[in-house]
Structure formats: C-alpha cells, structure tokens
Amino acid sequence: MKKIKSIMLIDDNAIDIFLNQKVIESLKFIERIQTFSGAVDALNYLKLIEDINAYHRLFAPQIILLDINMPIMDGFGFLVEFDKLKIFKQNPVDIFMLSSSLNSEEISRANNNNNVSGFISKPLTGDKLMAQIDRLRK
C-alpha cells in the first residue's frame, strides 16, 4: 500500500478525535495526522498553506475526514470555504464526511458535493476508511 503523507481530521468532539486518531494510526501507512477541533481552525491552516504558497512545506493533507455536525461552522460551511481555495484545485484533496447521524438529506447533500469523495458513518473503523481509500484508487 502506498503511504499517505498526511490526513487531516476535523471534529468538535475530543473523544471522537482521540478514537479516530487511534484508528488511523492502526493502519500504519499514514505518515502524519493533523487534528482540528473546529472547521474554522482547519480552514485557517489551509489558507496559510495557500497564502504563503507552502503546499509542500506545511504538510498539506491528501485526505480530510470532516465531521458534519459542529458548532460555529459545520462541515457544509467548511466545504463552501474550502471551495474558494485555489491551491487545492491544483493539488486535489479527498474529503470524506463523517457523521453519527444517518439523516438521508445530509448523506445526499454530502454525496452531491463536488469536493466530497465519500461519506463514512461513525464510528470510524479501519475497514470503513480502507474501503473508501481502495474505492478511490481503482
């Protein structure tokens, strides 16, 4: 399996961050995990990468795991702002939306967004993440 240099995990729940980080670490082919407890902080980091043109120097993520339901800015708000970042049009990122809700409207909205590569229901497992990554690589 080809190594993934960096995964960004965005979730407002500290327990979910901890558990998801352990799941990702168990896969052994991901070099770096960046965690953010809110969409705004994650966007600020991504904007910094774009502003200083530091895509390769600042561990730009190859995959983003994005919780849908968060305060201040939810996952869909993040996607609106992410879409404005030009650097990630040149260097695509696979974004997987995460949710413990199985609301069919949210799932449909996520799957119909051009920036979203897939939807993963919580709890995240290694098998669920691997299935999504394998699907992309085919």
CATH architecture: 3-Layer(aba) Sandwich
**What is the succession of H and E elements?**
EHEHEHHEHEH
Low-confidence stretches at least 5 residues in length (pLDDT < 50)?
A: none
The domain tally reads: 1
**Estimated helix fraction:** 40-55%
Q: Please report the total strand number as a whole number.
A: 5
Cα-atom Rg, whole angstroms?
14 Å
> Largest sheet, described in full?
5 strands, parallel
Beta-strand content bin: 15-25%
Q: Can you say what the CATH homologous superfamily is?
A: Response regulator
Principal-axes shape call: globular
According to CATH, what is the topology?
Answer: Rossmann fold
Strand order of the largest sheet: 2-1-3-4-5
Describe this entry's structure for a reader:
With 138 residues, the chain is α/β, with parallel strands linked by helices. It has one domain (4-137): Response regulator (Rossmann fold, 3-Layer(aba) Sandwich), CATH 3.40.50. 42% of the residues lie in helices and 22% in strands. The chain contains six helices and five strands; from the N terminus they run E-H-E-H-E-H-H-E-H-E-H. It has helices spanning 14-26, 39-51, 75-82, 87-90, 104-111, 126-137, and strands at 4-10, 30-36, 63-67, 94-99, 116-121. The protein has a five-stranded parallel beta sheet with strand order 2-1-3-4-5, with helices on both faces. Helix 5 links the parallel strand 4 and strand 5 (116-121). Helix 2 packs parallel to helix 3 (75-82). The longest helix has 13 residues, at 14-26. The radius of gyration is 14 Å and the shape is globular. The chain starts with a strand and ends with a helix. The model has no long low-confidence stretch (mean pLDDT 91).
